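Re: your question from the hallway

Yes, I did run it. Sequences:
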Amino acid sequence: MKKNQTVKFRNKPKIIGSYSIVGPKEGKGNFAPFFNYIMKDDSFGEDSYEKAEKKMFEHAIVKAIEDAKIQPDDVNLLLAGDLLNQIISSSYAARNFNYAYLGLFGACSTMAESLAVGASLIDGGLFDTIVCATGSHFSTAERQFRFPLELGNQRPPTSQWTVTGAGSCVLSSKGDGPRITMATFGKVIDFGIKDVNDMGAAMAGAAMDTMLAHFRDTKTVPDDYDLIVTGDLGKLGSEILVDLMEVNGVKLGLNYNDCGQMYYMRNQNMLSGGSGCGCSATILNSYIINKLRKGELKRVLFMPTGALMSTTATQQGESIPGICHAIVIECDPQSADNYYEKVSTTKTYKTSRGNRKKGA
Amino acid sequence: MDETKRNEAYNRYVKAKIPKTKAWPSLFNSFWVGGVICCLGQGINDLILYWFPSMAEQTAWAYTLIVLIFLASFLTGIGVYDKIGKFAGGGSIVPITGFSNSITSPALEFKHEGIIYGIFVKMFTIAGPVIVTGVVASFIVGLIYIFI
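Structure:
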């Protein structure tokens, strides 16, 4: 039996369509220009936030299929998951689609989990087109895991803000787009953190484990990637991860960052940053895929982390187990060539008053 | 290194790394906001006694509490009290207005689950423990009172 946690995809499934939808607060954050749709109101015209979350899901799935320029009937399988009990948002959204459906739960790591599973199924030649979707809503997560919204309590500095947003992408064996080349499936890691307001520290161990496994299995180093991005460790968690990796002899440089940490502007006062399934999903499906399509990023290690806890378990004194799955997405070699050609062209143009041949 | 030791070491490391809440500014904010709420209560009490001179002082206290509870509940409903609470912390939780907020907020939150299973069942999720503690504490104090 192979001991590796990493699989390499020979047929390289492509991400042919993607879509991201976020709430108003996220629409004022750092990634605002990249999102496909920013809701004006976080209830999205529904009478409860759970229904709003479900509607976000449906919206993201439909629009991602549109973005992929395929017929809705071409989709074989829907892989989705979210944070709520019994993953209701994704399952209830799946009612409205005539697709086979697999519900996944990887807490906030669901985006990578669904992409890794989807890519494996496509690479094995079992399916042609798979839609992966996930999302979260601040108001639904808050009431399930914490306190009512209107309660006048203070949040500790380590706490994170669940992102309201959903992201969806279409994976296919055919077509053009960024390709998934590798996936590392993570183990459940528990470092004994019990503070539910400190998810970053609870999940950093899992991120470290998966990252080490990935570098070991693939014989790569951090510098081989243009961007290494974790999901929602937040400010504290990503600092911890950098420390943990350094202890293990891997130095993470400037190409490492964390979606949760980057998500909001500093003046939005979000303490440790964003979290939730939607955090990594919306950034992947907007900023990262955008840059990969243009060829501005060539190779991205995307590794969202999830805290697999429930309120019942924490109240019974259990510590918080974490998980992290990693996928490697590479840009289409064609688009990379185009990009570098463009860059060198513009440079030549500027320096030599434009009298040189384009692309020389 | 075995697992318990690793976890202990990790917990120690994380504890040292966690950013600390600044104690003095939060204490100051909660002190003055709490003080303002108390002054407001005293003001309402004095006004009631001024307008109804024949009223017994104890009855006036009851009316003061009702007014304060209503105000906090109303401010919760229009989404202001949680902002005060975020700023003042204990200063707005400890007075009776905080109690009112802790009952109104779950009632608002769970109204979609229906009147009985939503509002009635969930209303005391946060305030419930306070009531239980109050009852138990008064029982113990009562016991002590019998024997001395």
